[in-house]
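Lecture notes, structural biology module. Today: joint structure prediction for complexes of two components.
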Amino acid sequence: MSTSTNIKFSDASMAEIQKIISRYPEGKHKSALIPILHIAQAEFDGWLSAETMDLVAATLKIQPVEVYEVASFYSMFHLAPVGNCVFDVCRTSSCWARGADDIIAHIGKKLGIKPGETTSDGMFTLKAVECLGSCGSAPMLQCGASYHENLTPEKVDALIESYRAAGKRRSYTDRDYKNTL
Amino acid sequence: MGKKLLIQNDKVGGIHTLEVYKQHGGYASVEKALKTMTPEAIVEEVKKSGLRGRGGAGFPTGMKWSFLAKPEGVARYLVCNADESEPGTFKDRYLMEKIPHALIEGMITSSFALGAKTSYIYIRGEYFYVARILETAIEEAYAAGYLGKNILGTGYSLDLSVQVGAGAYICGEETALLESLEGKRGNPRIKPPFPAIAGLYGCPTVVNNVETIAAVVPIVMMGGDEYAKIGIGKSTGTKLISASGHINNPGVYEIELGLPVEEFIYSNEYCGGIWKNKKMKAVVAGGSSVPILPTELILKTAKGEPRLMSYESLSDGGFATGSMLGSGGFIVYDEDTSIPMNLYTFNRFYHHESCGQCSPCREGTGWMEKVAHRIVEGHGKATDIDLLWDIQKRIEGNTICPLGDAAAWPVASAIRHFRHEFEALIPKTAVAH
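The predicted structure, tokenised, for the full assembly:
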């Protein structure tokens, strides 16, 4: 069984976790692992520390290693701290063909970071990622649950400003997503 | 203007709500199927329709359904593959976002046909906001009695929920998807057994693409024979095409299969021609995995016949001169595009997405990325083009799942049709080793 942890899920998260577990047949609760990891990442600073993953293991009554091996497989799970706003900028074919590299370079210059890095104030992380299914509105980036499409340098500047002004952490699980086209 | 069966109401205000969806004929297939048809009769209609899997493989759906094992007392599952991750493909996202009830209706009717009492929609994690839209629609469907216990008083009960992934192209492969849905790494399973015998939780399972399941609705309503009259030959019905790249009107289009490729690219009803008044150089017709074709071969087959948007016509000539309809991810490249650089983005993609289970794919995708990178950076070796060819050949057919082939085919086709572009990037001074 998992090691004890000093953190715990909020009541709201626990209620959601229970609801998710109820979707699977008796004894198949491990199916809830990926959805719960999303909730955990959103609740505990945007990344999955060993302590957070141990909490997920304890919650699901599975071995910690079962959580680690899954968390490390999927690219949306962060295994190290990230900025409040992670910019996932698509760079695969259709986005590349319509200027994704210029967008990545523009964001990098504006924020003073390279792909994979986080600004010193902890506000932004820049990532170059693979196809996000937004090829018809390329170039694009995802931040939290929001899709920002048909990007231009001007649109990117405005996005950075608005995320900076809001100053809050964005998560893939956000219900208040705001897509822009 | 071709017939539309899936997204004809995409511009109707409020069509994402159950109320408006119903005003436009929504949920009639559930009424018809559950109240007047047997599960076997529905499977028969789907067989007659000639519907083929819309995720990319094009396998006949009715046949896939008829393989489903039905042992007494064992649960059966229908799992919708909404993992849409093939570069160039965004049609399922469009359908789910605009008309979520079209998928839910298809799931109910299809689940009834297959005898599933619990069904899941597995959606890629990046589409979290689409999952929220689906969840809201599912809640509406429960409240209206289309889901849950004793649907419409027919005695049939079904629970449906959305499962969100977390970023892994490989989970679009059906057995990797099932592993992921069971809370594991997305490593594809060795087949057989196929999911129809041992799928989710070891139980008989059908995995179908979003568009495939949505197409069951018009098939049930009009009957398989009528559906089969739409389209051309064995490419029956309509297909959602995701159009992207250097065209004037990128977007999702529903076409009747058999539409000439030339009309699709140049008609203002569809792609609207090449942007900035440029000429076209090449097309990837069915998502990143399918062979890229130069202009002359995408517009006409090697025999000189007009190329059509159909399974048969796009594959005419085999891989020597043809390609595949695939997922319908249609990417157009203008005359200024560097084919080697475009290929490099695909190499990078497949390297990132290889699950690492099979060594030809795990090692080969990374090696191809490395070689392609030095070519596009201008310091390729004289032997690098042949080396790329050799690596892809050794991956193809030697892996558990089709990701290996998917990584190999773009390389082979880019070299086959655009070798001169690779050669031009190799420094004249480059030595053989």
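Point to remember: Chain B touches chain A through 58 residues (CB under 8 Å).
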